[in-house]
Design a protein that fits this description.
It is a single chain. With 73 residues, this protein is mostly helical.
Length: 73
């Protein structure tokens, strides 16, 4: 069900008619920048989730030790 060669050529011709040959490099450049920024946001977000999980794990590990110290006093 993917796009074949004929469909891709038809789409390219329609884009050329709508936007013109001069606009295509600008459109491609803008699309590439958008994809790069989207990937950067996704990778930063997944990195933040990993950091949050590490912080939560460290907080949970330190809590029982502090509670035990309070009970001993």
């Amino acid at each position: 069900m993917g796009l074949g060669t004929t469909e891709l050529i038809l789409i390219l011709v329609i884009v050329l008619v709508l936007f013109g040959a001069r606009k295509l490099p600008e459109i491609g450049s803008g699309l590439a920048k958008g994809i790069k920024s989207f990937r950067k946001v996704i990778s930063d977000d997944s990195g933040n989730e990993d950091d949050r999980e590490k912080e939560d794990t460290q907080a949970k590990e330190s809590e029982p030790a502090s509670r035990d110290d309070n009970k001993a006093s």
